[in-house]
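TL;DR need structure tokens for one chain.
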Amino acid sequence: MQNWIGIGIWIILGATIGLVMKVLIKRPNETPGHTIVLMILGSFAAVIGGMLGVGIFHLYEPLAISPGGMAGGATFSAMMTFVYRWGIRGLI
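>> reply
TL;DR here they are.
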């Protein structure tokens, strides 16, 4: 049960980081609808990053609610939403 709660926390954490990136990085010619895309991308990236963090730091006791899982989820989510918000959207 703890792993499902941890995955839920990763999803909420990723969506929140996506919204923070939207506030921090302003785009001049932004079309509507990117809030949902950023939330979904942040949530997906947080789940992937959380799994990587748990796999790297807590191999023998894999719990989603662990410092490695939370740090991995937050880091990967911030990185992916930053790349989308600043990098890829700047090229289009």
